[in-house]
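# nightly structure sweep
# worker-07 picked up a monomer target from the shared queue
# config: single-sequence mode, recycle default, output format = structure tokens
# input follows
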Amino acid sequence: MLDFSQFSGLVLFMFILTAGFWLLIFLLTFVVPYWIGGTIWENFKLKREAKKASEGK
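# output follows
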């Protein structure tokens, strides 16, 4: 049987483990694709502007 300090340590460990798991899931499903998509979109816009500038000269 666990005493209170062991139980509270276990609960804290499980909370940190669970929070880390859900943070990892959130980062992999929302943040990273948004970051990659934004980078691709910005590069596309820069190339399009450079192409318009070179055609205008």
